[in-house]
Specification:
Length: 147
């Protein structure tokens, strides 16, 4: 999923460059660049969240946690993992329900492009599912003292 996120960022960058060049040299900008960029940002954020957690790239409260001893740090990590699992699972379930309802109702988002709304919402439950799995793996590792 990190590769998909990187490809989304690359596509956004290239399409914006093409948009600027097209507008400047040919007076013919692409009408969909901003819209596609908005949608792809949703994809790369949610598809990269689990990878960032695995690579320990999320923001942490080191100043507060490092004041504790080893058992206190382990307890804080386990509590954070449990909260992460709960939040990611809840977001996965509810966003999955919303995406499914949008798919059944065939609701489009109408801007310069007509895109099914469920395609825009879909990366949220997918990313949250992966994040739930990654938090679960982290919880098990923290519980057994592995890093």
């Amino acid at each position: 999923m990190a590769l998909i996120s990187a490809l989304c960022i690359l596509f956004i960058a290239l399409s914006i460059c093409y948009e600027v060049l097209g507008r400047y040299f040919f007076q013919h900008p692409l009408m969909w660049t901003i819209e596609i960029s908005e949608y792809l940002q949703i994809y790369f954020v949610f598809f990269s969240a689990a990878w960032v957690l695995r690579e320990k790239g999320h923001v942490t409260l080191d100043i507060a946690v490092n004041r504790f001893g080893p058992s206190g740090r382990k307890t804080c990590a386990i509590i954070a993992d449990i909260l992460g699992i709960a939040v990611a699972a809840i977001l996965c379930i509810f966003s999955g329900i919303i995406a499914y309802e949008q798919m059944l109702l065939h609701i489009p988002v109408i801007k310069s492009l007509e895109v099914p709304k469920w395609l825009i919402i879909l990366p949220i439950p997918m990313g949250m599912l992966l994040l739930t799995v990654e938090f679960t793996v982290k919880f098990i590792n923290d519980l057994h003292g592995r890093t």
